[in-house]
Each structure stands twice: as C-alpha cells, then as structure tokens.
Specification:
The protein is mostly helical. Helices cover 61% and strands 10% of the residues. A two-stranded antiparallel sheet has the order 1-2. α4 (46-65) packs antiparallel against α5. It starts with a helix and ends in a 6-residue tail after the last helix.
C-alpha cells in the first residue's frame, strides 16, 4: 500500500481524473503569471475537513471543561495551520501532489 501511494502516480492520477468536489486546486505559478497560471497543485478535501471537525470538537471540549477557556482549541488550530502551510510548501518544493 505504501509503495502505491509514494512509489507511483496512482493517487495523483485518480484525484486528477475525478471531477467532483473532493480536492482543492490552487495555482503553483501564481506569483509569476498571476491568474493566467496553468500549473496547479492539489490538496485533498480530507486534509481540510477531518482536522476541521477535530478542531471544532476541541473547541466544544474547552467550553465544557471551563467556560471562557480555549487552550486546546488554540494550540490545535495553530498546529493545524502550521502543518497545512508546511504541506503546501513541501508540495511546491517537490512539485508533486500529496498522495494520501
């Protein structure tokens, strides 16, 4: 399974061929060509939705634990944003989609 994800282009090809709202596509060459850019990077919707649900649950947990507190929520939200920016940076550096 790991070889299929990282050793081949199976997941990238599959994600490119599906025309459904399961991926976020953003231009790689936006800084050079602006909106006329033709190269795009993909980020799976699962990379956004699943962590978003966990973060929302942590906010409710914080409010249940101690009203007015948001310690777990803020720490997780900051870590998620850092991880997402790192993922996008790595995708741009290696010029490849995140496989899974």
């Amino acid at each position: 399974v790991i070889f299929c994800l990282f050793g081949t282009e199976v997941m990238g090809t599959l994600a490119k061929s599906v025309d459904a709202p399961i991926k976020v596509v953003f231009p790689k060459d936006f800084l050079e060509l602006g909106l006329a850019g033709s190269k795009h990077a993909m980020l799976g919707l699962g990379d956004i939705v699943i962590p978003g649900v966990v973060i929302a649950l942590l906010l409710r947990f914080d409010k249940t634990l101690k009203p007015g507190s948001s310690t777990y929520f803020r720490a997780t939200y900051i870590a998620y944003i850092a991880g997402l920016l790192t993922t996008i940076g790595v995708m741009h550096f290696f010029k490849a989609a995140q496989p899974a």
